[in-house]
C-alpha cells in the first residue's frame, strides 16, 4: 500500500464519496484541491493523529511568539477540551501527546455547548457519544473556536455514518469551522525530497504507520453492493 498509487487513488476517491454522503462542505474534499482525508486504523488512531497535528500547529505558533522559551515549557501550556461523554481514546491521546485534557459538563440533552466552552477556554467535539449517542453543538463550538483561535476536532467515529440520512444533516451544521491536518507527521528528510514530491499524495504522512492496509477496497465493496439508499435503510432500521 505504501508504494501503490492505485490503492492511494481509490482511498482518496472513497474518502470523497463518504464526505459527500454525510454532507461535508467542498473544502473537505480532495477534488476541491484544499481538502481530503485518509482511512485510519481505528478511531483511537484518528484522534491521536488529530491531537498531534493540533499540538504541532500550536507549538509552531507559541515558538514564534516566544522564541526565548524552551520547548518543554511551551508544551506544558497546552490544554485540550472535550465533554465528559467523550470517548476514552481522547484522554489516551492526550496522555500520549503530553497535552493536558479538561472535561466539560454537558447540558440536559447530553450535548457540549458553546457557552460551556467559552467559560472554560485543541477542543474535541463528538457527533454521537458512545454512552448515549448524543451530539455536541458543532455550530456553537465552531463559532467559539473561530473567535478564540482554537483548534477544533470533531470525533464522529461512533455515529457519524448516520449523517448520510438527510433527516440528520442538521447535526453537522458548523462543521466548516473544524481544522485541517497538515504536515505534522511528514518525516521525509530534505535529502530524500525531489521535484516530483508534490505530484502524488503519500498517505504515510497522514497517519502513524508507514505501511498501510488496503481498507478502501472494503469500503468500495460496501458502497457498490448496497448503494446510498441501501445504506440509509440499514441505518434507519
Brief overview:
The chain is α/β, with parallel strands linked by helices and 237 residues long. The protein has helices spanning 5-21, 43-65, 71-75, 88-97, 114-120, 138-148, 215-236; strands spanning 79-83, 100-104, 123-126, 152-155. The chain has a four-stranded parallel beta sheet with strand order 2-1-3-4, with helices on both faces.
Question: Topology, please?
Answer:
Blueprint: H1 5-21, H2 43-65, H3 71-75, E1 79-83, H4 88-97, E2 100-104, H5 114-120, E3 123-126, H6 138-148, E4 152-155, H7 215-236
Parallel strand pairs: 1-2, 1-3, 3-4
GO cellular component, one term: cytoplasm
Pfam families: Pyridoxal_deC
InterPro entries: Aromatic_deC, PyrdxlP-dep_de-COase, PyrdxlP-dep_Trfase, PyrdxlP-dep_Trfase_major
List keywords for this structure.
7 helices; pyridoxal phosphate; 4 strands; globular; PyrdxlP-dep_Trfase_major; decarboxylase; 237 residues; Aromatic-l-amino-acid decarboxylase; Aspartate Aminotransferase, domain 2; four-stranded parallel sheet
Amino acid at each position: 500500500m505504501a508504494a501503490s498509487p492505485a490503492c492511494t487513488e481509490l482511498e482518496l476517491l472513497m474518502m470523497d464519496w463518504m464526505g459527500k454522503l454525510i454532507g461535508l462542505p467542498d473544502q473537505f474534499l480532495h477534488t476541491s484541491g484544499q481538502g481530503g482525508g485518509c482511512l485510519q486504523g481505528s478511531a483511537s488512531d484518528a484522534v491521536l493523529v488529530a491531537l498531534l497535528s493540533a499540538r504541532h500547529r500550536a507549538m509552531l505558533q507559541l515558538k514564534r511568539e516566544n522564541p526565548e522559551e524552551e520547548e518543554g515549557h511551551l508544551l506544558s501550556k497546552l490544554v485540550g477540551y472535550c465533554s465528559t461523554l467523550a470517548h476514552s481514546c481522547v484522554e489516551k491521546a492526550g496522555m500520549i501527546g503530553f497535552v493536558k485534557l479538561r472535561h466539560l459538563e454537558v447540558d440536559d440533552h447530553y450535548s457540549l455547548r458553546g457557552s460551556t466552552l467559552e467559560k472554560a477556554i485543541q477542543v474535541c467535539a463528538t457527533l454521537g457519544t458512545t454512552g448515549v449517542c448524543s451530539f455536541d453543538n458543532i455550530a456553537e463550538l465552531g463559532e467559539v473556536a473561530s473567535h478564540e483561535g482554537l483548534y477544533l476536532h470533531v470525533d464522529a467515529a461512533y455515529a457519524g455514518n448516520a449523517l448520510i440520512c438527510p433527516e440528520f444533516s442538521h447535526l453537522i451544521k458548523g462543521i466548516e469551522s473544524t481544522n485541517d491536518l497538515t504536515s505534522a507527521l511528514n518525516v521525509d528528510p530534505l535529502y530524500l525530497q525531489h521535484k516530483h514530491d508534490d505530484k502524488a499524495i503519500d498517505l504515510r504522512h497522514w497517519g502513524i504507520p508507514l505501511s498501510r492496509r488496503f481498507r478502501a477496497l472494503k469500503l468500495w465493496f460496501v458502497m457498490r453492493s448496497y448503494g446510498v439508499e441501501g445504506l440509509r435503510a440499514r441505518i434507519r432500521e
